[in-house]
From TrEMBL:
Domain GFO/IDH/MocA-like oxidoreductase: residue ranges: 6-101
Superkingdom of source: Archaea
Gene3D superfamilies for the chain: Dihydrodipicolinate Reductase, domain 2 (3.30.360.10)
Compositional bias (Low complexity): 168-182
PANTHER family: D-GLUCOSIDE 3-DEHYDROGENASE, UDP-N-ACETYL-2-AMINO-2-DEOXY-D-GLUCURONATE OXIDASE
Species this chain originates from: Halocatena marina
Stated name of the protein: Gfo/Idh/MocA family oxidoreductase
Region described as Disordered: spans on this chain: 168-190
């Protein structure tokens, strides 16, 4: 699995500060890392590199990163992220035995083939609005149909912090092997 998350920096002052937003991997690319966990399983290690040379005067964190993830399932996946792109792209390419798929998240399309059969899907409607409304229903306790529990979201946050550390250090970083569901005593620093 290979993913691309390329966007421009938002026009929000707090977002440009690592201590307030966590940086691009933590605040924006978290959706990609969450998808990698969902599709390929938990991550055991991340190897990364990054640069802070493009938006030197705009952000105080790496503005472009490349992170390879090793999953418990044996899968290896990759995430390319930048907040310095003039063109927005969120694409996920999946290659597996008898399958090859490409998801263009911003274009709402899925294409490829599974077991020799072509796959073509074009989504409709405002997906962001639907996600936002589902989130509001979930936190207001109107719905028990939640796709991602709070503990699961914390595990994705831990993964993005591991990925960010790997990219900043330019090396391989082991994931916490104890990503327990008990988050009550956990302190996470951005």
């Amino acid at each position: 699995m290979d993913s691309t998350y390329w966007v421009s920096p938002p026009e929000t002052p707090w977002w440009c500060e690592r201590t307030r937003s966590g940086g691009q991997i933590v605040e924006q690319s978290t959706h990609v890392y969450d998808l990698h966990r969902y599709l390929a399983g938990e991550v055991t290690a991340a190897t990364g590199s990054g640069t802070d040379r493009v938006l030197v005067d705009s952000v105080d964190f790496q503005d472009a990163t490349s992170v390879t993830l090793e999953h418990e399932s044996g899968a290896v996946s990759h995430v390319s992220s930048t907040c310095a792109s003039p063109v927005s792209r969120f694409e996920v390419r999946i290659t597996a035995e008898n399958a090859s798929l490409e998801l263009d998240y911003f274009e709402h399309s899925l294409s490829g083939s599974v077991d020799g059969e072509p796959v073509q899907f074009e989504g409709a409607g405002d997906w962001y609005q639907r996600e936002f409304e589902a989130f509001l229903r979930a936190i207001s306790s109107e719905s028990t149909d939640v796709r991602s529990e709070y503990d699961d979201a914390v595990r994705t946050l831990e993964l993005t912090l591991t990925a960010r550390a790997a990219a900043e250090a330019g090396n391989r970083t082991e994931s916490s092997s104890n990503m327990s569901s008990d988050i009550s005593d956990r302190e996470i620093n951005l």
